[in-house]
Amino acid sequence: MISGGISHPGLLSRLQAPARSVWAKHDRDADGWLPLWRHMEDSAAVAGLLWDEWLPVGVRKLISEVLPGGEADGRRLVVWLAGVHDIGKATPAFACQVDQLADVMRGTGLEMRSRQAMGPDRRLAPHGLAGQILLAEWLEERHGWTAKQCGQFAVAVGGHHGVPPENGQIKALYDHEELLRTPGRSNGVWRQTQTELLDACAEHFGVRDTISSWKVVKLPQTAQVLLSAVVIVSDWIASNPDLFPYFPEGAARTGEERLAAAWRGLDLPAPWRADDPVGDAQELFGSRFGLPAGAKVRPVQEAAVELARAMEVPGLMVVEAPMGEGKTEAALAVAEIFAARSGAGGVFFALPTMATGNAMFPRLLEWLERLPGGGSRRSVHLAHAKASLNEEFAGLLARGGRVAAVDVDAVVPAPRPGGDGRVASGELVAHSWLRGRKKAMLASFVAGTVDQLLFAGLKSRHLALRHLAVAGKVVVIDEAHAYDTYMSLYLDRVLAWLGAYRVPVIVLSATLPAARRREMVEAYAGVTGAGTENVGADGEYPLLTAVAPGGVPVVRCPEASARAVDVRVERLPDGLDVLADRLEAELTDGGCALVVRNTVGRVLEAAQVLRDRFGEDAVTVAHSCFVDVDRAAKDSDLLRRFGPPGRATGRPSGRHVVVASQVAEQSLDVDFDLLVSDLCPVDLLLQRMGRLHRHRRGEKQEERPARLRTATCLLTGVDWQSDVPVPVRGSVTVYGKYALLRSAAVLDPHLDGGPARPVRLPSDISPLVQSAYREAPVGPPSWAESFEEARVRFDRFRADQAERAAVFRLGDVGRPGRALFGWVAAGVGDTDDTRTGRAQVRDSQESLEVVVVQRRSDGSLTTLPWLARDRKGRQRGGLVLPQDQVPTPFAARTAASCGLRLPIQFSYAETLDRAIAELEQLYVLAWQGKDSPWLSDQLILALDEDCQTQLAGFSLHYSHADGLEVTRG
User: Is residue 633 predicted with pLDDT exceeding 80?
Assistant: First the structure.
């Protein structure tokens, strides 16, 4: 029998009539209700099962390690706190809200004023805060605790609605005791009822004889957060009437029957319990990643596995290696080792963008399917704002089912095969309860944007849930070099908390500035000074750096396995005709060139000129201003045509030019014969160079055109004729002048046959990056004045970023025993992966996102006409979107897949407000509400039949080939 470990008899038998009459839940529509004692038992029982069957081993250890009775005490504490979390409902301030239930309580002697009579003062006593105070009073009066000792435990009750109380709120309620107990003759009845409920809980939940031993405990703040989070999850589950029916319907079942039916209906997948993989790195990679016959594990991968096994305890590992070294596979292999040794119950893979998150998700699923324990169910999630539009994830969602109680003796339908060959209740499950912006990260395996991780450092409501989500996982942070100062400040604070939770973390990067590497190590380890000096030194490359929480870093320097590539770097004057002439000369015998521009405007300008020169079919455009479905199709097309030999099937036989923005820098395994790039920070330029001669095409590249067998990067976007290079204005807007000048300075010796020519990859990667980012002067003396002006502006900008980041950034981990009061004070309230939420952890202006549809001449709305059929062969282009009723789910989802983030012109306050006002004129009432989840609350941008429109004084034109083009109206 499932009992959640609760002793018997039940709470009810220990209570007198007044305590039995206290209510906790009420359904105004059905007039159902739930007594407080019943909800206390339900919540505690759920907490016991969460502890036994859902919480990862590592989380249980963190909660238990300072308790005298170890894990047994940890379980008792979780059950007890979940059981008493709603004791604040046994107060006049709460009970007065439903007249008929309040009247029943009055009939037992619990007098109270009406809700209207209490007036606005009632808001001083939210039931979580009231419960915290009542629990603290009980601990002081019945067990002799001090106020300080009480706070660290009682805060889990006070914060169970997502925000731990602040000291001022606590004092204000103490000054209004009438909200806790009605004055006069009824005061004693209220006090007796509250005490009786807490006494009964202590007895029933098995802590009566244990509480005295907890008096001397100093709970770490990490444990307080996790306890708060488990109480929240227990409350949410026990408050779901589909799982725990209200009275009178649910009154006939015993507590054990309620719990058994609810738990069976909830059917949460258990956490991952990894076994330490046996065998050497070659065997591990062969079994997990299906290495082709004869393929050898790379030195970086082998060194990462060896270092993970050599660490006394799992901690932080920073992997810096060139593009193409298999860092992703190395991270997953290390994650498995770390999880087995730390008790982590899953993995979160954090990536810089939604596109990289989408690309990682199927790779994560493939890895999961190869892990041992094939019969087990594993919860998975894709965590970003548009995850439900990802077809791989949507397939899992469609089979997730609905959560509802299931009788113990009920027949459970057999699972149906999924559309992609997976069984619906098989290994990988997008569980229906583990959805939504506050619960999704609680799934065991998650791929998503780094914002989801950075939110753990943002003072916001229900932050404890985000901490529970990451505390039970191994965290992988990819492309760490892509994060600016603002994001890095949040990341470092998150790393400090992850270190305190002893969460294993793996950071991946092509290379990091030495100072940035040291900052990350110090943040995680919680130590500074001499012990981390070797981390900040310019060293070998590739580089592995590892440190345990509170430990001393160790460094490993494996060889790079990738062949060396010498890249000839030349200045190219900035001019469209100059670009076209040079490409025409270089591509005389054919070949594929990549032109990377720093702004979408420069992409489109170049593409137009190059099409005029080479023809429409010889030029492809890729940038961020495509609707989501077109952007995904672009990525797939680039991989199909320019991917690795043997996998790419459509590489052009003649000359072809891809003109792209920064989307070409990240996570696309594409290979070009020639690179033309705007000047950018040197680490990003090296990323772009990673797309040049990325793969071997014949002996000595003989399968490439003769002129292009030497890797060449033409550097443009700069006035090279000036005494000091002058980057184009768009590049300065994006990157800042100081970073661009330092990049030009460190590249100067390599340009046009300079003394250090060429750039050799990978050996020059680290020296170039370290030189560009250290404080020492670089470049010719004649550049000094321009450098100083740019540096002053850069320092001012960075200081401003730090000041703004500090406003809502979570504080440091407090000392053990210090209660979490005010933990998220002056925070942002609720936050999630919306444009507003992302703007809080990225230093970016609020962007405007729209759903793009087409308006026909007759006024009807349709999906965009060129959309290809889906995987099932269903037509998506030109689907009618009726305005007098909800569109079909398929049509609505297709429309939603055409989401578009408008460019920076629409992010300035006045333009943003005007654009929103104009977009809101197309408000389709039938598309709003829960019956239209895909389109409800979306801003709709309707293009005419020529795919044009006007918005906020700008002319917009969209094409399948070029995406969105914006000009002044």
Answer: yes
Q: List all residues 6 or more positions away from 428 whose beta carbon is below 8 Å from its beta carbon.
A: 365, 368, 369, 377, 378, 380, 396, 422
Residue 81: closest CA among 35, 125, 119, 50? 50
Going 110 to 116 to 122 to 126, the CA torsion angle's sign is positive
Digit-coded pLDDT (tens) for 373-383: 755 788 888 88
Q: Examine the pLDDT at 5 and tell me if it is beyond 70.
A: no
pLDDT digits (tens, 9 = 90+) for 304-338: 999 999 999 999 999 999 887 899 999 999 999 99
Lowest mean pLDDT among 27-31, 188-192, 217-221, 544-548: 27-31
What tokens were used for 370?
């190869």
The strand pairing partners of 543, in sequence order, are 320
Q: How far is CA 342 from the centre of its chain?
A: 22
Can you give the pLDDT at residue 426? 32
CA-closest candidate to residue 470, choices 482, 488, 493: 493
Strand 543-547 with 316-320, pairing: antiparallel
Which residue shows structure tokens 């629990």?
Answer: 135
Distances (CA, A) of 442 to 239, 397, 684: 18, 15, 33
Packing angle of the helix pair 147-158, 70-84 (nearest 10 deg): 60
| pLDDT above 70 for 355 | yes
Distance CA 568, CA 564 (A): 13
Rounded average pLDDT over 837-848: 65
Which parts of 759-878 are beta strand (E)?
A: 759-761, 849-855, 861-862
Q: Which residues contact 913 (CB under 8 A, 6 or more apart)?
A: none
Q: Which two tokens stand for residue 6?
A: 């609760």
What gap in Å lies between CA 673 and CA 671, rounded to an integer?
7
Query: Bridge partners of 23?
Result: 35
Long-range CB contacts (< 8 A, 24+ apart) of 615-621? Answer: 616/961, 618/652, 618/654, 618/655, 618/656, 618/657, 619/656, 619/657, 619/658, 619/659, 620/656, 620/657, 620/658, 620/659, 621/658, 621/659, 621/660, 621/961, 621/962, 621/963
**Structure tokens given for 875:** 């037509």
The closest alpha carbon to 850, from 793, 787, 909, 918, belongs to 918
**The pair of three-digit structure tokens given for residue 105, joined into one six-digit string:** 């309580």
Q: Is 309:407 a contact under the CB 8 Å cutoff?
A: no
3-state secondary structure of 104: helix
Distances (CA, A) of 728 to 128, 623, 965: 56, 19, 20
Kindly give the interhelix angle for 36-53 and 187-204, rounded to the nearest 10 degrees: 30
- Rg over alpha carbons for the chain, rounded to the nearest Å, is 30
Tokens of 679: 């000047």
**Residue 65 tokens, joined:** 């390690």
The pTM (predicted TM-score) of the whole model is 0.90
pLDDT of 6 reads 46
Q: Cα–Cα distance between 97 and 941 in angstroms, integer?
A: 44
DSSP element (H, E) containing 221: helix 221-238
Contacts of 796 (CB under 8 A, 6+ apart): none
Residue among 503, 630, 693 at smallest CA distance from 960: 630
Which two three-digit tokens encode residue 860? 């009807």
Look at residue 150 and give its three-state secondary structure.
helix
Residue 306 confidence (pLDDT): 97
422, 278 in Cβ contact below 8 A? no
3-class SS letters over 811-830: CCCCCCCCCCCCCCCCCCCC
Distance between CA atoms of residues 551 and 537, nearest Å: 18
Distance of CA 156 to the CA centre of its chain: 25
pLDDT of amino acid 532: 74
Question: How many residues are recorded in the chain?
Answer: 969
Helix axes 127-143, 187-204, angle to 10 degrees: 80
Identify whether the C-beta of residue 132 lies closer than 8 Å to the C-beta of residue 165.
yes
Residue that has been written with the tokens 């030495």 in this structure? 514
8 A C-beta contact, residue 697 and residue 563:
no
With contact defined as beta carbons under 8 Å apart, do 919 and 850 qualify?
A: yes
CA 838 – CA 452 distance, rounded (Å): 9
Query: Cα separation of 404 and 262, whole Å?
Result: 7
